[in-house]
Amino acid sequence: MVHWDALVCIMKEMGIPNIFTNWVMNLVNSVCYVFKVNGRCMVRMQRAPEFHHHAKCKPLELTNLAFADDILLFCRGEAQSVQLLMNTFQSFSASTGLIFNPRKCKAFYGSVDDENRRLIQAITGFDEGKFPVRYLGVPLSSKKLSLNQYLPLVDKITSRIRHWSSKMLSYAGRVQLVRSVIGSITQYWMLNFPLPKSVLKQINTICRTFVWTGKSETSRKSLVAWHKVCSPRKQGGLGLLNLAIWNQVTLLKCLWNICNKSDSLWIRWIHKVYLKGKDVMEVEAGQSWTWIMKKVMNCKPLIASINLDWQRMLSISKFSMKTVYNRLIDGNSVCWHILLRRNIARPRARITLWMMCHGQLPTKERLYRFGMLDNKKCSLCDQVEETVDHLFFECPATKRIWNAILYWLNIHHCPLPWNLELNWILEKTKGKGWRAMLLKLALTETVHEIWLFRNDFIFNSDTHRNKIVEKIIDCIAYRGWVNRKLRLHVANLML
Ligand SMILES: [Zn+2]
Fold it and tell me: 224, 212, 134: which is closest to 169 by C-alpha?
């Protein structure tokens, strides 16, 4: 990641005047800008009666675009205009020493007959290019992208997930990796164009399978539904971005930009070529409009769903994608979300608590219901059904553990089954104080260790029943010690 602020500091240190620094920063901060190749030459060329603009570039008198060290030149598909363009570029080359390499250049034609193509090829020496081409990592095309053209994106996600280092990750680590993969897609591909539903479905399947199985081969295994995983933490999710909704947010952002008539070139292009002075909110997309423009125009009904004053939004200088996203994903919040907020337990322990709050831990009673087990008796006491409510903390084996932890915390409370204990814990963990933080940490580590203890008991028959309380206390003490707010209180408990 580039920190452009550093560039400002360097230029200041070098004593470069502010006005020049601002020019440079304007260039590096804007993604798209017009690069005037020897400005006067271009103006002279445009005034020549033999030069004709490309039909859609005429309203803006656009002849060239540059990004980094690439340049795109536009004119009508005829020999005389191309010849003038090449002459102008050559005079630029003569004065600056910057020349192009014809072998690395391509000519792209739209409705140009063979005779003209041959003449243009002779003038420029450029081979014919065909759309789509990949530019800056994304496909550049004059038509709607086919599903195959999204394959590089899908392959990229799969290769990141298949990386050798991801094999050792826990649920929490896999969620974090998916978060970063989704983040990079949204920052790059989705800001360029909306992704089709089928591609989003494919990406969600890859991410879901990876989170729940650690593999990239498609599987239907899923402990918590993916749309829940991708909902905000307040609604019981893990805060992963819902790509379908983000798709809509990016379209609304485009619409906002068009309404705000920002000074960027592409907005001016849309106004000149498509809207022709009409209000974007009043017109319907025309048949000949590009597929992206049609998508942008079709997203107008979404404005009603976000329940925000569009006119007021237009008066604000920045479009907040996060605010709009939160409006679109609005749902019911769950009471237990506060247990996971400001929770400093180990990420893997937080995931166990999260699954338990969803009632999705694969207890024997659940597996029995799905026909995967014959016996639903608690693994630890072999007396009653192994449900979450029993396992945490009704079972004599686990009640003893939670009781010991509460005693160590100087909390006098007799553990109850989970459905009742949850109410007590929610009452005790209100607010931001250290007591709430410590209890959340203790609960999360206890639940996680009890779950591991139960799994060890079933699969390895190897348990250190007496050691579990010490292990949980060690975890709480370490996590508490590294937190400034809790350090002193944990130290007191250790005395
Ligand atoms: Zn039991």
Answer: 212
Does the pLDDT value for residue 466 go beyond 90?
A: no
Euclidean distance between CA atoms 178 and 207, whole angstroms:
6
DSSP 8-state secondary structure symbol assigned to residue 220: -
* Residue listed under structure tokens 């795109």: 72
Quote the ligand 1 centre to 226 CA distance (angstroms): 31
pLDDT digits (tens, 9 = 90+) for 103-126: 899 999 988 999 999 999 999 999
Alpha helices in 137-196 (DSSP H): 151-161, 171-192
**Residue labelled with tokens 């963990």:** 429
- Residues for the chain: how many in total? 495
Answer yes or no: are the C-beta atoms of 182 and 360 closer than 8 Å: no
Mean of pLDDT values over 266-294: 89
Which tokens belong to 369? 């219901």
Q: Measured between alpha carbons, how far is 249 from 235 in angstroms, rounded to an integer?
A: 19
The predicted model scores a pTM of: 0.80
Q: Which tens digits make up the pLDDT trace of 24-54?
A: 887 776 654 444 444 667 777 877 888 899 8
Cα of 428 vs centre of ligand 1, distance in Å, is 26
Average model confidence (pLDDT) for the chain? 87
Q: Where are the beta strands (DSSP E) in 75-212?
A: 106-107, 127-128, 133-135, 138-140
- Distance (Å) from CA 479 to ligand 1 centroid: 29
Whole-number Å distance, alpha carbon 450 to ligand 1 midpoint, is 12
DSSP states along 314-350: HHSSS--HHHHHHHHT-----TTHHHHTT--S-HHHH
Helices (H), 310-459: 310-315, 321-328, 337-340, 347-357, 364-369, 388-389, 396-408, 418-428, 434-459
Q: What is the chain's Cα-based Rg?
A: 31
The CA distance from 272 to 177, in Å, is 43
Instruction: Say how far residue 410 (Cα) sits from the centre of its chain.
Output: 43
Query: How many angstroms separate the alpha carbon of residue 237 from the centre of ligand 1?
Result: 29
